[in-house]
Design a protein that fits this description.
Elements: H1 2-10, H2 12-42, H3 58-63, H4 66-90, H5 95-106, H6 111-114, H7 116-122, H8 128-149, H9 152-157, H10 159-188, H11 195-207, H12 211-220, H13 227-255, H14 259-290, H15 299-319, H16 323-332, H17 338-367, H18 376-403, H19 408-418, H20 422-434, H21 440-455, H22 457-467, E1 481-487, H23 490-503, E2 511-519, H24 526-536, H25 538-547, E3 551-557, H26 561-571, E4 576-580, H27 594-601, E5 605-610, E6 619-624, E7 644-649, E8 669-670, E9 682-686, H28 687-695, E10 706-711
Helix pairs in contact: 4-5, 4-17, 5-17, 8-16, 8-17, 10-11, 10-13, 10-18, 11-13, 12-13, 13-14, 13-19, 14-15, 15-16, 18-19, 18-21, 19-22, 20-21, 23-25, 26-27
């Protein structure tokens, strides 16, 4: 009896849970049985048998449901876009090229041509309306972000030369585009399209610069803080504003039935712009002053900002200059508060850029039918369009830049960058296609032109840099030792600089240190990039001032951080790359993951720091396995006489290791084992030694001492 009582006491909760489930099950069984009697009394047929004799036709009911199709479409689009974007980043191309290619590949030009059944299943005609409307919402959010990225203060500071270069980069290709339209109008303009609308639109198609893509390229190449980068960003911003103003004018003319209608549309547009600047902007300024931190930007504040964007887009759509112009204008009038803009952008960017915007690329790809270019004359026309677009934009920008006092190299680089068209070109082309100004053939030609001119930006810059590459002259017999520090968290940058400065202390006069920080996001705005750059190098600059040394800083954005670090180390011909350790996602080995990538790809010595809280290097231990590890002592050669350097040889060393030549302070050699590794501030070892000792579970691997692992590059 007592045992039964103890059982009930120990399993009280389980018995209660089982009793409740049993009671519910019995109750449901009784109700369902009673319900069957009700069915029979009404003569209800439970299931309709299909023609095939199956009770359920699952494939028809679920697989082809509009919601199932839409979810599958979005999934395929996102995966394809990100994959091709990543592949493009590996060859130093903007990710937007991969996204455009994804749209073309999923459209009739590739998938539809070779796998029509798959296209019919993935993108049935009835589903295209859903993609179109979702992509338009994504574009509205994207144009709002572009408007917020526009730095009005920067435009005011550099308005002089930027306006000259930007206007020249629009006027010259615009005039060439209008002239080209004369020869293309008869064959490519839709029947109802006037020559004025067709020529004006072709002019704007050839003169647009993609400000977002150009900004990403400038960030990825670390040109943000250079005079060239600042100038070209300002030019692109002025170009963007001018181009959208002209585009709105062209759309107004194309949508109007006559001159009177166009005048009314333009007049309403001017009233709308004045209201946005004089009425709406002051209200938003008051909101931004009050709500400047994330905790205070609540849902009502976000709702006010998004409502402003949507109302602005609706007004411009009703006026007749397209909703995207309204979204762009709403972004422009957002108060010039960096923190407020950053928080708002973070709330919108991920959904618009990752989820919705790829739908626009695919929708454009579904409209792009390369198969229509089935005549050599059409391909010749496409070649002429590309040549005119490149010559007009490249030559116009370069000559104007040279006229304003830029060097030939910078002038040509500005021309190459301004020739980038990218996503903004596709937006303009889709507007022209929607309002009936562009035929399918010329639409396809212009999409290919946008893709080609964007793709050629990187190679053009590389060619120009190669041609103008300055020859390095040797002015001294003393070789400068170049060290690259790459870090993530700001604190890590300061600590790595502290370590390098102590290791090379007495040799710092012959050592040049460069600090590199990469943001793993190529889609951040220029303002946010500057903010992140200041934060990233804060500790480095603080440590450099404390130590009294000069440190060169490099900041860039990159999709593939490890690859970009390796490319930077190899291109800069550094002697040593110093990085912090980071454990792989699926492992615990600090020398795996990203670290292994550096060891395998970087063409210089690599130092991996396992930081366990070092400050001053008072006691340093160098661990050697054999005579081949003698080079490790070179990395402690700069330590002053106040630091104690011990050497422990795991195998009997040759005599040559026992003495370090040309040093004022002889190195104590410890042939035996160290009893307490925790007393050391830093342990220096080769990568191979560390990996072998880690497998043997050596005591020093898990000691409190920080570790510097050196992988020596074989220059043979």
């Amino acid at each position: 009896m007592k045992a039964w009582h103890n059982f009930l006491k120990n399993h009280k909760s389980s018995l209660f849970y089982f009793s409740v489930l049993s009671a519910v099950a019995i109750t449901l069984w009784i109700v369902f049985k009673a319900g069957l009697l009700l069915e029979r009394s009404r003569g209800t047929v439970p299931f309709e048998i299909s023609a095939s004799g199956q009770i359920f036709d699952f494939s028809v009911v679920n697989l082809h449901h509009p919601l199932s199709i839409l979810i599958l479409q979005i999934l395929v689009i996102i995966i394809t876009s990100r994959l091709l974007g990543w592949l493009m980043s590996l060859i130093s191309q903007p990710t937007v090229i991969g996204e455009i290619l994804a749209g073309i590949m999923l459209g009739p030009s590739l998938l539809g041509m070779y796998f029509p059944d798959i296209t019919a299943f993935l993108f049935p005609a009835a589903s295209l309306g859903n993609i179109q409307f979702l992509s338009q919402i994504g574009l509205i959010l994207f144009m709002f972000i572009i408007g917020m990225e526009l730095d009005v203060g920067l435009l005011k500071k550099r308005a002089g030369s930027a306006i000259v270069i930007s206007n020249a980069s629009i006027i010259i290709p615009y005039a060439m585009g209008v002239t080209l339209a004369y020869f293309l109008y008869t064959r490519f303009a839709p029947q109802h399209t006037t020559f004025l609308a067709f020529s004006l639109f072709l002019g704007i198609a050839l003169s647009i610069t993609a400000f977002p893509v150009l900004a990403r390229i400038v960030q990825e190449r670390g040109l943000t803080q250079t005079p060239l980068g600042a100038t070209v960003i300002t030019c692109a911003a002025v170009d963007d504003v001018t181009a959208w103003g002209i585009l709105a004018l062209v759309v107004a003319i194309a949508n109007s039935s006559g001159i009177g209608g166009a005048v009314i549309t333009i007049g309403l547009s001017l009233v709308y712009i004045l209201l946005m600047l004089m009425v709406v902007r002051p209200v938003l300024n008051k909101i931004a002053l009050k709500y400047t931190v994330r905790e205070t930007i609540s849902k009502p504040v976000v709702a006010i900002v998004l409502s402003t964007m949507l109302v602005s887009a609706w007004v411009t759509e009703v006026i007749g200059i397209h909703a995207l112009f309204g979204a762009f204008m709403a972004g422009v009038i957002i108060p010039d508060n960096v923190r407020f803009k950053q928080i708002m952008a973070e709330k919108i960017e991920d959904v618009s850029l990752v989820l919705l915007l790829p739908l626009f690329f695919v929708y454009t790809g579904l409209r792009t039918q390369i198969g229509l270019l089935n005549d050599p004359d059409l391909w010749l026309t496409g070649l002429i369009v590309v040549v005119v677009a490149v010559v007009g934009k490249f030559a116009g920008s370069s000559l104007a830049a040279r006229f304003t006092g830029q060097t030939w190299k910078d002038s040509l680089l500005i021309g190459a960058l301004m020739n980038t068209r990218g996503l903004i070109e596709l937006v303009a082309l889709n507007i022209g296609y929607d309002i009936g100004v562009l035929s399918p053939e010329i639409f396809t030609i212009l999409v290919l032109m946008a893709l080609i001119t964007t793709f050629m930006t990187g190679p053009s810059m590389a060619l120009i840099n190669f041609i103008f590459k300055a020859r390095e002259t040797v002015t001294t017999m003393i070789k400068t030792y170049n060290v690259l520090i790459s870090f993530g968290p700001p604190e890590a940058g300061g600590r790595l600089l502290n370590l390098v400065s102590q290791l090379f202390g007495s040799q710092l006069k012959n050592t040049r240190v460069t600090a590199l920080h990469l943001t793993p996001n190529t889609e951040i705005s220029i303002k946010n990039a500057r903010f992140f750059e200041e934060q990233a190098f804060g500790k480095v600059r603080e440590m450099a001032d404390k130590l009294g040394i000069d440190v060169k800083t490099h900041y860039r954005t990159a999709e593939a951080v490890s690859q970009e670090i390796s490319k930077t180390a190899n291109r800069g011909k550094y002697d040593l790359l110093v990085v912090g350790s980071s454990r792989p996602l699926m492992g615990t080995d600090e020398t795996g993951g990203k670290a292994r990538y550096f060891f395998d790809r970087v063409k210089c010595d690599v130092g991996l720091v396992i930081d366990r809280g070092f400050t001053d290097l008072q006691k340093v231990l160098v661990i050697m396995e054999n005579a081949g590890d003698q080079y490790l002592t070179d990395f402690t050669a700069g330590l002053d006489g106040q630091s104690r350097i011990d050497v422990m040889c795991l195998l009997p060393p040759s005599v040559s290791i026992h003495q370090r030549e040309n040093t004022e302070h002889p190195v104590p050699v410890l042939p035996g084992a160290v009893q307490n590794f925790d007393e050391y501030d830093l342990i220096v070892s080769s990568l191979e030694c560390y990996r072998e000792q880690r497998q043997c579970q050596a005591a020093w691997i898990d000691s409190k001492a920080s570790v510097l692992l050196i992988s020596q590059y074989d220059k043979r």
